[in-house]
Design the sequence.
């Protein structure tokens, strides 16, 4: 047994339950329910929700009263024992079975504060009795604060009787199980009831009633056999008392046990503590061991990112960036005589409705419609994304018990419907680095205009000379550079220089266009990864975090 187990055994041996610690454990269960709300099925959580509500109500009601129930099968004599303890004939006793069809209550001492408690228990006013008489003097003062209930027979042929028994067994502070020598080993009482109370040993008493029907020599043997059965039910250490109402002292042992219980004022706390133990044990099976961490470097996350990149059309947009770069570079640095023709060709980015952006937020109205004209993903890409999301969910939910893997899967798929629009907006909002011309484009473009103007000037000069000759006017004397006239040199040199610069800048534009594509692809991948983080990984991590928080608060609820 570990240190925690030894500590719990020591606390149990001490027998007292600290009220503040009990409230802290109940608060931990309440926080647990809040954490797992919407993540785990409601049905397994019903006992925990019922306990939190019932415990809050019980602790808010009378702390001066101890509710004890006499439970037993038909013919066990519990109603006679109830009357014997009250020293009054309050519950009907007869040969017809079942005799007790409704719950009777006897309250020792003033009823102040006990009325609300009996209302909560559902005991009808006409079946409530107050055990307070001037004739008793102080004979009954040791039981002041006791509310003794005579429950219907749990093996009654009427199903409503058993339902009433089961309801009240979940509410009372202490249960006295009354068995008789003939049916003390009955399978129903042990399998359906006593065995279920193994976590409530501190608030359980077993009475072997009607021992007067046994030969004196057999009493100890039957008691020993009943003790063996109780130990096998997990009720070792539970008080086992022989009783009989035919002997004036036959109920003194039970009366003494009830007097000690009333004096301690601990039964309600012990009962709730046992209920907390049972609920925590069930919740512990639902929580299990810690879940795996889902880091950015996890292969499942990398697969998801690749699938999102494909579905978002990042390769298509990156290719459009490269083509747009080359298109715009040619339109800026090319020979001016052919620039107009190039500008008549559509821009690859604008064909995708990807205007130049600098990363500024988009108008919210633009989010109501498709942001881009990026082609729809293929069936294969959509299938790959679905598989990647499922892989992430399986990786995150690996090793988690109960319904947690289902909660992880549901979280991973919870926002898939919004994912296409989110990816489209991410692509549209990403600064692709194409919002302004490059400096070298302008320099080359300026040089192109200079050489073109030189060619135009040379052409005009030559044209003027031909015109003067045609009109019979004196010829112009062209300056010479060697054997070549300057106008001819300007014309031919300008044309050749323009063509040469266009030829030299073309490979440079292709190289820089590939660099632009790589930068844009990196930015687009980052934007798409953020969408995957927000729409898939964040909901999954929220479930994993909830599982970790649930384990933490359950550890608080576990300590007695």
Sequence:
């Amino acid at each position: 047994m570990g240190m925690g187990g030894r500590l719990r055994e020591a606390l149990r041996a001490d027998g007292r339950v600290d009220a503040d610690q009990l409230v802290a454990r109940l608060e931990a269960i309440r926080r647990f329910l809040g954490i797992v709300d919407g993540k785990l099925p409601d049905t397994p959580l019903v006992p925990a929700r019922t306990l939190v509500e019932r415990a809050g109500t019980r602790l808010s009601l009378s702390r001066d009263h101890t509710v004890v129930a006499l439970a037993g099968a038909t013919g066990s004599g519990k109603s006679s024992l109830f009357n014997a303890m009250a020293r009054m004939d309050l519950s009907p006793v007869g040969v017809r079975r079942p005799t007790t069809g409704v719950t009777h209550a006897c309250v020792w001492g003033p009823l102040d504060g006990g009325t609300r408690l009996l209302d909560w228990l559902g005991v009808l006013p006409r079946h409530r009795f107050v055990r307070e008489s001037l004739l008793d003097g102080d004979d009954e003062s040791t039981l002041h604060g006791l509310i003794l209930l005579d429950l219907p027979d749990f093996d009654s042929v009427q199903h409503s009787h058993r339902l009433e028994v089961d309801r009240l067994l979940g509410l009372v502070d202490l249960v006295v199980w009354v068995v008789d020598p003939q049916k003390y080993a009955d399978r129903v009482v042990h399998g359906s009831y006593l065995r279920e109370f193994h976590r409530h040993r501190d608030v359980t008493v077993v009475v072997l009633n009607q021992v007067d029907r046994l030969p004196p020599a057999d009493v100890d043997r039957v008691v020993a056999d009943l003790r063996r059965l109780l130990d096998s039910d997990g009720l070792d250490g539970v008080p086992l008392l022989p009783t009989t109402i035919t002997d004036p002292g036959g109920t003194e042992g039970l009366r003494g046990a009830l007097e000690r219980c009333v004096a301690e004022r601990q039964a309600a706390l012990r009962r709730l503590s046992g209920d907390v133990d049972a609920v925590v044990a069930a919740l512990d099976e639902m929580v299990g061991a810690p879940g795996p961490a889902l880091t950015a470097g996890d292969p499942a996350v990398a697969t998801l990112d690749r699938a999102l990149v494909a579905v978002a059309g990042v390769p298509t947009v990156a290719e459009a960036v490269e083509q747009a770069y080359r298109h715009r570079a040619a339109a800026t640095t090319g020979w001016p005589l052919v620039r107009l023709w190039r500008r008549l060709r559509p821009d690859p980015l604008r064909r995708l409705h990807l205007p130049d952006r600098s990363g500024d937020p988009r108008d919210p109205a633009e989010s109501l419609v498709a942001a881009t004209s990026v082609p729809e993903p293929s069936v294969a890409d959509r299938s790959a994304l679905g598989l990647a999301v499922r892989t992430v969910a399986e990786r995150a939910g690996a090793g988690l018990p109960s319904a947690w893997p289902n909660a992880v899967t549901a979280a991973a798929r919870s926002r898939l419907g919004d994912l296409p629009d989110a990816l489209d907006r991410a692509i549209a909002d990403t600064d692709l680095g194409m919002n302004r011309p490059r400096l070298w484009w302008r320099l080359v473009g300026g040089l192109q205009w200079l050489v073109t103007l030189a060619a135009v000037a040379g052409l005009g000069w030559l044209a003027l000379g031909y015109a003067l000759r045609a009109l019979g006017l004196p010829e112009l004397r062209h300056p010479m550079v060697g054997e070549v006239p300057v106008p001819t040199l300007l014309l031919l040199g300008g044309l050749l220089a323009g063509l040469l610069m266009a030829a030299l800048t073309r490979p440079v534009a292709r190289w820089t266009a590939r660099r632009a594509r790589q930068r844009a692809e990196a930015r687009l991948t980052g934007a798409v990864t953020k969408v995957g983080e927000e729409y898939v990984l964040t909901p999954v991590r929220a479930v994993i975090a909830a599982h970790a928080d649930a384990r933490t608060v359950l550890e608080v609820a576990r300590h007695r």
User: Anything to note?
Assistant: The chain has three domains: 1-62+269-287, 64-264, 299-558. The radius of gyration is 45 Å. The first strand starts at residue 66 and ends at 72. Confidence is low (pLDDT under 50) at residues 1-13, 94-98, 358-370.
